[in-house]
Design brief:
about 130 residues, about 70% helix, mainly alpha
């Protein structure tokens, strides 16, 4: 983890984000058949996992990005396992593929310069005080 002033708060916020994503993933599906963009949830998986990867790359250095990627992939597999357990949701292997693509996009964004954003945010806030 990066040398963050508020490391515990970042970790708590990260856990809250993961719980929120899991909650949405396990909530009963809302059918929006009139909206063409909602006919496939794969884009939503990709965007969500790109966001999560960028979020966690903000707290970890580049050398740990592979751990972030593995953690995100494990979280995606956990979501699919949970969806298999509940009767009103279904698990799909293509969802995990969409998660992996989102993770790759998130890692690309992080490597392009966004990674470590939480440390820069803390430094910026400290300089304002």
């Amino acid at each position: 983890m990066l040398p963050l002033r508020y490391a515990r708060r970042w970790q708590a916020a990260g856990m809250a984000v993961l719980v929120l994503v899991l909650g949405f993933a396990l909530a009963p599906s809302v059918h929006m058949q009139d909206m063409a963009i909602m006919r496939s949830d794969k884009w939503l998986h990709g965007v969500t996992f790109a966001f999560l990867t960028v979020w966690f790359s903000g707290q970890y250095g580049r050398r740990s990005y592979w751990r972030v990627a593995l953690g995100m992939l494990a979280f995606g597999a956990f979501i699919e396992l949970c969806q298999r357990i509940v009767a009103y949701r279904s698990a799909e292997s293509l969802d995990l593929l969409a998660d992996a693509i989102g993770i790759a996009v998130g890692l690309t964004i992080a490597a392009a310069g966004i990674g470590g954003w939480s440390l820069r945010l803390e430094d910026w806030l400290a300089a304002r005080r």
